[in-house]
Design goal:
Elements: H1 21-41, E1 49-52, H2 53-58, E2 67-74, E3 80-82, E4 87-94, E5 97-103, E6 119-126, E7 132-139, H3 144-152
Parallel strand pairs: 1-2, 5-7
Antiparallel strand pairs: 2-4, 2-6, 3-4, 4-5, 6-7
Length: 171
């Protein structure tokens, strides 16, 4: 035998061991389709729709019970807080549509303040009564330039930038 000739199976001999490539591809495909079906069939839909208040309130029936992220402006004077059990209630609006919101938590972000006309995004579900049950409240922070304009217009800041942190002594 020369170094160029290698012993190997003859064309007539059957292949030994290994799974044919088509079977491997089929198994991977079935596993991927099964995983996708399992994710989509769960009771908690992994997808969250992002909408504006007017879009949701124009067709509330089509959004009932779905996980949503809704953005609107906080209606001034609408914030109400109940201590026991803890719950915040407020109204978001866009153009001529309003959406009442319930947030059954004790704590909201510091920038969630009444009287500032801030944009707020809530995440949760719209109930069949038209009230949005939020599990997350995200107020949009105004930029420093927007805040300066508001200060010049006589509005108060949501926090005091010159305030000392508790426990921070003079050095």
């Amino acid at each position: 035998m020369t170094s160029e000739q290698r012993p190997g199976p003859s064309p007539d001999s059957p292949k030994r061991g290994g799974i044919p490539g088509a079977v491997k591809v089929a198994v991977v495909f079935v596993v991927l389709v099964g995983a996708a079906a399992w994710l989509l069939s769960g009771s908690d839909n992994p997808f969250v729709y992002s909408k504006l208040v007017d879009e949701v309130m124009n067709q509330p029936d089509s959004f009932e019970g779905r996980r949503l992220r809704v953005e609107g402006e906080l209606r001034q004077g609408s914030i109400q807080f109940r201590e026991s059990p803890c719950e915040w209630r407020f109204v978001l609006y866009k153009e001529d549509k309003e959406m009442p919101v319930r947030f059954p938590q004790c704590v909201v972000p510091d920038t969630f303040r009444d009287g500032m006309g801030i944009q707020v995004t809530v995440q949760g579900e719209l109930g069949d009564d038209g009230v949005f049950l939020a599990n997350q409240v995200i107020p949009r922070c105004p930029s420093k330039y927007e805040m300066q304009q508001r200060l010049e217009a006589g509005e108060e800041m949501p926090y005091d930038p010159n305030a000392k942190l508790p426990g921070a002594g003079e050095s």
